[in-house]
Amino acid sequence: EDQVTQSPEALRLQEGESSSLNCSYTVSGLRGLFWYRQDPGKGPEFLFTLYSAGEEKEKERLKATLTKKESFLHITAPKPEDSATYLCAVQATGGSYIPTFGRGTSLIVHP
Amino acid sequence: DAGVIQSPRHEVTEMGQEVTLRCKPISGHNSLFWYRQTMMRGLELLIYFNNNVPIDDSGMPEDRFSAKMPNASFSTLKIQPSEPRDSAVYFCASTPPGMNNEQFFGPGTRLTVL
Fold this sequence. Notes:
The structure holds 2 protein chains of 2 kinds. By secondary structure, chain A is mainly beta. Chain A has no helices and 11 strands. Chain A has strands at residues 3-7, 10-14, 19-26, 30-38, 45-50, 56-59, 62-66, 70-75, 84-92, 100-101, 105-110. Chain A starts with a strand and ends with a strand. By secondary structure, chain B is mostly beta strands. Chain B contains no helices and 11 strands. In chain B, strands 2, 4, 5, 6, 9, 10 and 11 form a 7-stranded mixed β-sheet that branches. Chain B is globular and about 40 Å long. At the A-B interface, β4 and β5 of A face β5, β9 and β10 of B.
């Protein structure tokens, strides 16, 4: 069974204080790993897809990296508007396209 | 593009009543997913359609839940009869054709069953 574990569950940062969120996964074979951002009262919004170990993607202050067992979402010099819940999901190889989501990390950035 | 559209945005009903949630996926997308999100259990997949055909409904909690997709532009999730433990936010998401595509989520329907 595919499993996704995100840590920490919650993270409080001061504006400008860089940090990383972790997504550990267990799948028989990885087709893709997705990062989403979810603001309160809204649906998750896609950020990145990573396909193979060693791959990195960046968007503004966010950088996602991937190894064979985990992914990190690095947040550099965060701003209050980066406050949100960040969700990780994995899609396994095989016939199903169904992603498995983690519980998310709730990030609060204080000004 | 208007994105995934869900209605209603909020629904408050009494236990035992029938509830119907609606979803219009993004035009051209051929996969549709219904999720339920709660604080306790996070985001749970209920059912997945591909080309309007239900592929995996193993996440549907019980027979009180049913979902249909009569055409490529409309899907419904029905709960009959509703119970207080069904209170949650229900999301619909769609994906374009392809194997590794991200999901586009709707704004969700917040359901409260009294």
